[in-house]
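Quick note —
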Amino acid sequence: MFAAFGLVFVGVVALWLYALARKTGGMGDKRARQISQRWIIGGGIILPSVSIVVLLLFGIPAGRSMLPLSTENGSPLTIRVIGHQWWWEIHYPDAGVVTANELVMPAGEAVDFHLSSLDVIHSFWIPRLGGKLDVLPGRTNVLRLEASQPGSFRGQCAEFCGWGHAHMVLPVQARSRADFEAWLRARQQPVELNAEHQAGAAAFQEHCGHCHRVNGVTNGGVAPDLSSVGARPVVGGISRRDDNGIAYWLRHHRTPEHDQHASAAFPDHSVMAPQHLDAIAAWLETLGND
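Predicted structure written out below.
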């Protein structure tokens, strides 16, 4: 579209400059009217009509592929996406799996994303896979996307939604059907508590479990689900710096570098004993590493 309209713009400017520079040479009124009529019909009716038809021939099939229409292979997979300030809640209703800031989808298959918001207007966008769609409070919009092959992509909120908007990142993975089903089965299993991390799990239950859910451990539903947080490349909008990425976030998310004026949304972990933070982080790092 940029190329097409760029050519139109160049053509219009060239004709405008030509009209300013040319001399009529004593052309009569009748001849001038005939030339004007040709330009009006050709440039004002025929050219726009042809341009619109060409764009529609290109745009309608592309747009249709993103609509939740019936397919020959039956109903596509449904994934519910709920926007929050400032994170993404992901539901796989057929499998009973819930994640946060972690989207996995089958490659080579159409997926219907049911988009809604619990606070303000967000916008769901995975640039490599297709167009974006607004995520509105009190309404569910449906967007169909398909990853033609396995790969990793970056999703992003594309509507300014507050101070933490820039950190509302959504890592996306497209996997083969077999790998996708294996991932779902792993996420359906409750988290096992081993002796090495009992202290971290106990501290998490006491200080964090009323807001965060960990499958089989806590049932909090206010903040992001952390059942597989150890496998996520991004924590709280901050890219994992190293193997201690969660500990880094727990200690630094309220600093001026990362706070983004979102302090009301995040608890102040500085009130907790450092050894409790370290134990919680060490336990969370193990979750989802299957």
